[in-house]
Design goal:
Length: 429
Amino acid sequence: MKLVRYLLPLALLSAGFLQPANAQRQRQDLPLRVFLDCNSSGCDFDYFRTEVPFVDYVRDRNDASLHVLVTTQATGGGGTDYTLNFIGLKELAGASDTLHFISPNAATRDDRRKGIARTLALGLVRFVANTPTAEGLRITYAKPAEQAGTAVALARDPWNFWVFRARAGGNFNGESSQRFMNLNGSLSANRLTKTLKVNTSVSGSYNESSFTFSEGKKFRSHARSYGMSELIVKSLTDHWSAGQRASLTSSTFLNQKLAARFAPAIEYNFFPYTQSTRKSLTLQYSAGINSYSYRDTTIFGKISEVRPDQALVASLSATQPWGSVSASLEGAHFIDDFSKWRVVLFNSLNARLFKGFSVNLFGSAGLVRDQLHLPRGAATDEEILLQRRQLETSYRYFAGVSLTYSFGSIFNNIVNPRFDGASGSFFFF
């Protein structure tokens, strides 16, 4: 029996049921274990591990004492508001904090990662202040130059919150028997305040393809589209918004010489809009008028027509410690013809189910009964293969799934960039 009394505690200790006091003290002397959950632009994990080295970064939330969840939201100036949520786990359960870093529109990738790293370090100080790690920390302060003058300059906005963007681009590729060209551009003017949102844009694109077949025959195809759109939204309360959308478009793919739409709308958010970086559940109803002018006579014998319609859209978005989900369900129909309708479901889910295992699901499915624009006559083989013309269908779908399971060392503090350089194999093979 004496032997059992000595061996049983040893067995329990080796199995992890009992922890000696000195082992508990050893854990407290170790650096804080942090799970950094950041999937946005500007999240450079190698940089964070190098610039904020006073914590241990772990690969799984279950191994961490602190979960740092980073979410983003666009600002009115075209920048990004990074929200860092510090969520305590295990011995830090119940502790939390939230910090913001706002990246301006003109910020470079290096500017963004520096700002996130600085905000991350500031937020971590609170959680390591009572640990031995704090002995190695030093606080410095860089006084802003001409601070008072800067504040006055920020208060006077000569643009009155308007932000303008112009973009133009293209890509070209080819070989001896085929070539492709794409040209595109856009111009936008946006104004965003707490009570009013105004978005306007103009865009266009041109695509051209050329092929030489085995018998020497050449085939050339092109497609073009352009459009104008505007959105005006007025904030009514923390949950209600009202606004309207308008658009003017043209597309060879959709057989539309000119399509115009105007639609007032109203939206209700079940959560306050201030929580939209973490969770949002909205219902939006719109009713509008559409005017169509077609390039070719449609399958319904129309070259132009005017149709009223209405739509109801339910949207869910959530970014939580367990993962993220985004989903929407849209139903719409033409008011003068209930047989012309569509229903579209979209879903994206990324969830950590248990330690080391995560699942990513995404997909969309829709029933389509409102293709008024389809041209009369069958599409050629070339138009089908090159997708230069929309085809008649009663449904559309796409889906994808990926499973990830990782195991091994829980730490990811080491940075080793060797052999990370790009190769020229994309061009030469």
